[in-house]
Amino acid sequence: YVGEVVEATPEICAQTLHVAVENFSTWQNISIKKRCEYLLLIAQDLVKKESEWIHLIIREVGKTWQDARTELREAIDFCRFYAEQARNNWGKEIITRGTSGESRYLIREPLGIVCCISPWNFPLAIFVGQIAAALVTGNTVIAKPSSQASLIAQRAVDTFHRAGVPKTALLYLPCSSYVFEHHILTSSHIQGIGFTGSKKTADKISTALNRRINTPFPRFIAETGGINSIVVDSSALIEQAVEGIIESAFNNAGQRCSSARIVFLQQEIAETAIQLIKGRMDTLKIGDPINVETDIGPVIHAKSLHDIQTHIEQHRQKNDVVYQPSFAAIPLHGNFIAPTLIQINDWQSFNHREIFGPVLHCLLFKESELNKVVDYINQLGHGLTFGFYSRIQTRIHFMSRTIRVGNIFINRNIINATVEAHPFGGIGLSGNGHKSGGLETLNAFSNQKTIVENTSALGINPDLVS
User: Is 223 an annotated catalytic residue?
Assistant: First the structure.
């Protein structure tokens, strides 16, 4: 038992909207300096309560100790980075180039009322990151968490409020997707939506927004999942590649939008690589995530477990090679499943469906088929993360320029994007190009106003005088 959640009714949604609208101008008029101070205080609070946060993340969503700690670190980084960016770049006029006799500059303004909708697989980092970016740029925020992670979200919101963010500027709204879509997203008062989650949910949000007629265009910042691939050619350091593949496919029980779903191995090194992958899988420990030595915890719920098991069984019936370590002690109770490697015999028969769990699909290719691999990956339509292991610079350059994704990682794993160092976000079916944790993130939560003054209208051209 972790706790209980009471979901909001349509009446509470209406009250929440009213409060956000009524208090927008008050929050907008708080200085940039003060808003940045709030974020830094939040970061300090998260650091101070590290152990408590790790235990709550483990208990509510089943992350391992290391994955929970890494997520907490990311939430802290978001607060500090966005505070730094806002302090250095917001509240200032940006002078633009132009003709003599004019004064030209840009100013940034908040969107207005922003909804932040976060997923269960990163219930703290993404939740905090979205809210921090929206608040520091002057928006009031309605925060809707995943129903699987409402307690983490509630505590995060309490942390914002404890740091000084008014309860009228950040409003917590746990409710069903149906209520949120029909009683919040359809409101003309909503000017922005920050969303991370499944493509299916993103489509529902788009549908809700399309019901709005003769209302302002809302900003939709979306990052969805991906059928992410890693390609390993014959020049790669195989041991390095195998470690990156294992981390990318099985960390967080494969429940990351950036997790590797497919690995392409060049035939010349495939047999060796597959044996090393299997050997490394045998060393992974599956079990209760409260134990520090656990590598793989449970998947999020019974339905997810059933879907993964059904997918694996379908490939067994196709005579694809399925490998799972023969663990002696997989817990009898809970949504646990062993890490799984599936070697696909027929590329064309492969079902391009994102399996959100510890399942990796292996396809082999010849050296002459590298262009075919590129076409195959691009035709999947998803564009989140991609990894390439090679020591041939011309190939690295070719793959980096031709694979259509938001984040490409060379000779390292494709997960654990770091705030500022690796701005993260996808294209195609994986998102609409916006990045989190980057220099342009705050722009997504802002509007820009261009102001031009004809200074020569005063009877003199100041540029010529100076």
Answer: yes
CA 275 to chain centre: 32
* Catalytic site residue from 60, 71, 74, 223: 223
- Beta carbons of 317 and 339 less than 8 angstroms apart: no
Q: Quick one: DSSP state of residue 181?
A: I
Residues linked to residue 230 through DSSP beta bridges, in sequence order: 263, 387
Distances (CA, A) of 354 to 85, 206, 255, 361, 363: 35, 21, 11, 11, 16
257 is catalytic: yes
Nearest to 260 by CA among 278, 273, 241: 241
Of residues 13, 116, 175, 257, which has the active-site annotation? Answer: 257
Q: Averaged over 4-17, what is the pLDDT? A: 95
Which residues, 6 or more positions from 438, have their beta carbon under 8 angstroms from its beta carbon?
420, 423, 424
Q: Write the pLDDT tens digit of every residue in 331-389.
A: 768 899 999 999 998 887 777 788 999 999 999 999 999 999 999 999 999 999 999 99
Query: At 340, which amino acid appears?
Result: T
d(CA 359, CA 324): 10
Across 28-37, average pLDDT: 96
Instruction: Return all residues near 297 (Cβ < 8 A) that are at least 6 apart.
Output: 58, 62, 63, 64, 67, 253, 286, 287, 288, 289, 336
Cα separation, 193 vs 362, in Å, equals 37
Name which of 365, 372, 385 is nearest 435 in CA terms.
Answer: 385
How many angstroms separate the CA atoms of 130 and 124, rounded? 10
Phi and psi angles of residue 193, each rounded to the nearest 5 degrees, phi first:
-135, 120
CA quadruple 7, 167, 150, 173: dihedral sign: positive
